[in-house]
Amino acid sequence: MADAKPSPVPTGATGVLVLADGTVIWGRGFGAEGQAVGEVCYNTAMTGYQEVMTDPSYAGQIVTFTFPHIGNVGTNAEDIEADSPHALGMIVREDVTGPSNFRSVQPLDSWMKAHGQIGLSGIDTRALTRRMRTIGAPNGVIAHAADGRFDLDALRAMASNWPGLEGMDLAKSVSTATDYDWDGGVWRLGFGYEAAADGAGGAARPHVVAVDYGSKRNIFRNLVKAGAKVTVVPATASFEAIMALKPDGIFLSNGPGDPAATAEYAVPVIRKLLDADLPLFGICLGHQLLGLTVGARTIKMFQGHRGANHPVKRLSDGVVEITSMNHGFAVARDSLPATARETHVSLFDGSNAGLELTDRKAFSVQYHPEASPGPQDSLYLFERFVGMLR
Length: 390
Description:
The chain has helices at 49-54, 108-114, 125-135, 152-161, 171-174, 217-225, 239-243, 259-275, 285-293, 380-389, and strands spanning 15-19, 24-31, 34-43, 61-65, 89-91, 118-121, 139-144, 180-182, 184-188, 192-195, 207-212, 229-234, 249-252, 280-283, 298-314, 320-331, 340-346, 352-357, 362-365.
C-alpha cells in the first residue's frame, strides 16, 4: 500500500484479512499486491478453483476455500468461465506449491499476479468458515504487501464502510457490452473445446437468446450440446432488441449481486418475454429474476450456498441430484404465487432450488447444472429446455 503507516505484524506475514467488525487475521500474501474490499464467503469444492475465480457470479466477493490444497494443479487457458477472474481474491490454508498436472501452463501464483488478484495463505480456513457459519458472511478487506507494511486503521475503515451486496446491482458491470453468437462445444480430454457438431449456427437449430447477467461459458456450451444455436445479449437488452433476433426460446443467466436490484430493469423485460409465450429457462440469478417477475420475493441468505456437493431433491420423483451452487440470495418459498410450482429443494436447509410456471412455458433452477458435480445428474435440464423449442 502506498504511504501506509507501519504497524507490527507477525514474523513472515505479508498478507492480512481485516473484517468489518475490526477482526484482523494475518497470513502470507501471494498473487498481486494491493487491497480489495468485498464480501468474504467460503466454497467447499475440492476442485475447480480456476473456474470459481473466473465465475462472474463471484464479483464483489473474496473466496475462502475450505479444501486445504488449492493451486497444486496450476492453471491453464481452458478451465475458465470468463476471460479474467471476477472474484476479488482467495483465502487458502496451505501455501501454494508448484503445479503438478500435465494440463498446467502457469502456476496459480503467477496467474493471480497477471490478473491482479490477491491471495492469502496460511489462514485457519476451518476457523474462518466456522465463524461465517455463526455470524454470516462478513464484509472485509484482503491485502498483500511484500514488505509487511499495512495501515490497519485504513483497512478497518474500508471494510466497515463498504455497503455490502444487499441492494447492489453488479450484473451490468460483468455483462457483455454487445451481442455475439456462441457456437463452441463442450470440452473433451485430448481434444479441448470442440466445435459443435451439425453446424451450431445453422438454421436447423432452435435459436436461444441468452441474457447475460454474468454468465458462465459452460452454460452456453451445454445449450449448444443440447442442440441449440445461441446468441448472447447484454443484461440491459430491451424486449424489442431481443425479439428482433427472432428467438425460439430465452435463457436467463447466472450473475452476481442482489437480484432485487437487477430486477429493476430485468423484470419488465422478462415479463414481456413471458407474455410473448416464449419458452424460458433460468439458472441462479436467472432463477431469482424469474421468481421476482411472477411476484415472489428474494432474501439475503445468512451464509449462502457455494460448493460442488450440494444435494437437491427433485420433487416430481424424489430423485436427489448432487449439484454445484453459488448464491447468497434465494427465492423465498412462502412467497411463490399459485402459478409457480416448486420443483426442487435444497436438502441442506430446505431452501428453494427450482420452480416452474403452470401458466407459461418457463422453468428455472437455483443451482448450476453445467458444473456437472454429479457428474451428469442435472444435464437433463438443458435437453428439456431445447426440447421445448423443437
